[in-house]
Design a protein that fits this description.
By secondary structure, the protein is of the alpha/beta class. The chain has 11 helices and 8 strands.
């Protein structure tokens, strides 16, 4: 399958119900970006919220990803107008927007990704990017879950992406004894998205969990995180070396 090379091609595949499989980067650095993209994922996400990728390096980071024919996305620092707009102006072809609180907030977030007259995005894109970037809402609050039906009815959302750990915290179900209940809740979210023909994903650190959610119907599939992959590989090689 040819590599994804634009926001529109990713959107087309998701609208057809085809999965797109990407990787998540929290380490930063152009070299790491190129390494991740050279493995031929469908997209790579720069984590501006919890990762080491900084706004100043984002244009070069995205350029390294795009040079490999792979779509470059970003999880923005917050759901605010300046944080979303800045990532898009610096070349991100899609944004994953955290901490969406409910229907009204979701509609506001979508408007930040669209130029007028339908949206509020400001003209001033600097490098690359897209006139019509993908907008993924990260579902990680109890309020968003409570208003899920309303969110699913909104236009302009390209997919919902479940943040399991923050959602568990918001619901008061973060303990190990709540894992079965959280699995049930996440499955219900995936099923409701599928019934509404909304592309959906669940954040994961590894391919095994990613494959599990893909079999459950998720089409926004995160196969790995660079930090998790590096840690696992290092622990494995150190163990072998010390044996």
């Amino acid at each position: 399958m040819p590599p994804i090379d634009s926001a529109s091609s990713v959107r087309d595949r998701l609208q057809r119900g085809d999965p797109v499989v990407g990787v998540w980067s929290g380490l930063g650095g152009v070299e790491a970006a190129e390494l991740l993209a050279s493995c031929d994922p469908d997209y790579v996400v720069a984590d501006l919220q919890h990762g080491a990728v900084g706004e100043g390096e984002l244009p070069g980071w995205l350029a390294a990803v795009r040079a490999c024919g792979v779509a470059g996305f970003a999880r923005v620092r917050s759901s605010s107008f300046p944080d979303i707009g800045r990532a898009l102006d610096l070349g991100a072809e899609a944004v994953f927007v955290p901490n969406v609180r409910g229907v009204d907030h979701a509609a506001e977030v979508v408007s930040y990704c669209r130029y007028g007259p339908v949206g509020k995005r400001s003209i001033g894109r600097l490098l690359g990017g897209s006139d019509s970037p993908l907008c993924f809402l990260v579902l990680e609050t109890a309020q968003a879950l409570e208003q899920l039906d309303g969110i699913l009815s909104l236009e302009g959302i390209d997919g919902l992406y479940v943040g399991p750990r923050d959602l568990a915290l918001s619901l008061g179900k973060a303990g190990s004894d709540q894992e079965e209940e959280m699995s049930r809740i996440i499955k219900s979210i995936v099923d409701r998205c599928l019934a509404s023909r909304m592309p959906v994903g669940v954040h994961t650190n590894d391919g095994t969990r990613a494959a599990y959610y893909r079999r459950a119907g998720a089409t926004i599939v995160n196969a790995a995180m660079d930090r998790a992959v590096l840690r696992t590989a290092l622990l494995h090689d150190l163990e072998i070396a010390r044996t």
